[in-house]
Design goal:
The chain is of the alpha+beta class. It contains 5 helices and 16 strands. The protein is globular. The relative contact order is 0.23.
């Protein structure tokens, strides 16, 4: 079996309005869904992506305003790499400078990445990429010419990189493309979210908390394909969960032997089945089993809305 690549990446952050201001207001991504963490209904689950929330573009967040900061380390995604269109690097440098966001230029496998952190410490990069559909979603000074396409990929930090490399190549069906002194690069068959760089060095365990990626999800074509993946992963010796209904996709989870939490998520049904394309992300959407508790849930959530901004603040 061969994965097409990343479906989504989910992280833990702080105040929800700061999260929305950064990913929508600064990075120009579309808030495609405002819902709750189904396992912790007093917490938002916010989804950002391209105009449709296409698989391979979806960055999702659990905002926990009072949680402790995490510590980056083994068993985690190190950086999340966003793909920007070719010849837009200068635009993004100026945009980060406009919002007083410090960045550095990092070269990885011959390509320049703009490396920076979000307001809650999550490590991000921007890298130019030809492949992948352009994102026709202009917002707050980011036009459809410069808009982030989705994921270029991610870096993984493992407590046992040999085991993680074996998983990526033999179980997930990624192809080992190249390596240097620090990284091994694997690619998948998709045109977006198709690159995984694994740090070759054993990394001591990190600590989950604000500013850390919670899990990385890979794509399954549909429900039938996901069941095949479930059997395939179990046969490879991993403890995999039953299918979980996440409303906008179905999910299975397993922790690989380098301690990184993996998910395999279905491409359908997507984000427009309970809202129109035009209105996605505008209202708090709850699954039917939580609707009777809507008033209680809404009273626990901090207000968060998409707005145009000229600078970042903590309001």
């Amino acid at each position: 079996m061969h994965t097409k690549g990343i479906h989504h990446i989910t992280a833990i952050v702080g105040k929800p309005q700061e999260n929305v201001d950064f990913y929508a207001g600064v990075l120009g991504l579309r808030l495609v869904k405002k819902t709750i963490n189904f396992d912790d209904p007093g917490t938002y689950h916010l989804y950002f992506g391209d105009d449709q929330g296409s698989p391979g573009t979806i960055m999702t967040f659990f905002p926990w305003p009072n949680a402790m900061p995490g510590r980056i380390g083994g068993g985690q995604v190190g950086t999340t790499d966003f793909a920007i269109p070719p010849r837009t690097m200068d635009f993004w440098k100026k945009r980060l400078e406009k919002f007083d966001i410090r960045y550095e230029e990092v070269i990885r496998f011959g390509k320049t990445h703009l490396a920076f952190t979000d307001p809650h410490g999550l490590q991000l990069t921007l890298v130019e990429q030809e492949s992948g559909r352009n994102n026709p979603w202009p917002f707050n000074g980011v036009s459809d010419i410069e808009a982030i396409k989705g994921f270029a990929g991610a870096t993984l930090l493992s407590v046992n990189p040999n085991e993680t490399a074996q998983l990526l190549e033999q179980t997930m069906g990624c192809e080992k493309m190249t390596e240097d002194d620090e990284w091994i690069r694997f690619t998948s068959k998709g045109d977006i979210g198709n690159t995984i760089d694994l740090k070759k060095e054993n990394v001591g365990p990190g600590r989950m908390g604000v500013g850390m990626v919670h899990h990385i999800a890979f794509r399954a074509k549909d429900d039938d394909d996901q069941l095949k993946w479930q059997s395939h992963v179990a046969d490879a010796g991993y403890q995999v969960t039953p299918v979980q209904d996440r409303q906008y996709f179905n999910a299975i989870y397993f922790r690989e032997h380098g301690q990184i939490l993996f998910e395999i998520a279905t491409d359908p049904p997507g984000f427009a089945h309970d809202e129109s394309y035009k209105t996605m992300g505008e209202q708090l959407k709850l699954p039917e089993w939580y609707e009777p508790k809507r008033e209680q849930i809404e009273s626990q959530l901090h207000p968060a809305e998409v707005r145009t901004i000229n600078h970042l603040n903590s309001d």
